[in-house]
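Weekly modeling sync, notes
Attendees: AB, CL, MP (scribe)

Item 1: holo prediction request
CL wants a bound-state model with heme C before deciding which constructs to order. AB pointed out that an apo prediction alone won't tell us much about the pocket. Agreed to run with the ligand included and paste results into these notes for async review.

Input as submitted:
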Amino acid sequence: MRRFAILLLVAAACGDRAPGDAEVAAARAKASDAAAKLMGALFTELQAALAKGPPEQAIDVCADRAPAIARAIGEETGLSVRRTSLRTRNPENAPDGWERAWLERATAGTAPAVDDAEVVREGGGYELRYVRVVRLAEMCTTCHGAPERIPAAVREAIARRYPEDRATGFAPGDLRGVVSVRVPIGN
Ligand code: HEC
């Protein structure tokens, strides 16, 4: 009994212990679910908006719905979920240090087909940094493709709302960015 108590004390004192494989795998599964959910929901809404009306009206989906859906998934899962890129349209989506380093590596070399993750120290504990690759699909070119191919009304609406836009000139298949998820582990 006494031995058990001592073990418990030791475990409590070692909050610093590196997370085990099972914990990391569980965190990664949670992150992957949250990212896939955001991408799926956005894709569906964008497709519907583009089918329904002129593409400049679909800008609201990317502008307002993307952060709203990300927030809702964040609240539901208790995780931080966001979209980021080296070439942003909205400067608020600019990458943090870890995301930038990952995106630069992926751009210079080869990005993984689906996702990637790394356990990092955060505050007094650990955190899983997870990214899910976002590649440009054909339908994204209306707003992110070669500038001369973007309809004039879309170009104007984007220029008005996003004077610092750097998110054009992508071709289908290009690495457009990532959905980035942070999962606290073992805290
Ligand atoms: C109707 C125009 C439109 C279409 C179509 C569109 N986007 Fe966007 N995209 C935007 C706008 C506007 C933003 C800025 C959103 C914001 O303010 O957070 C954006 C932002 C993004 C971002 C976040 C990083 C940044 O640049 O700020 C990613 C990633 C992204 N889009 C990927 C895609 C992908 C992938 C597709 C196709 C599946 C797509 N977009 C289709 C208009 C569009």
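Recorded for review: Confidence is low (pLDDT under 50) at residues 4-14.
Action items: CL to compare against the apo run; MP to circulate these notes.
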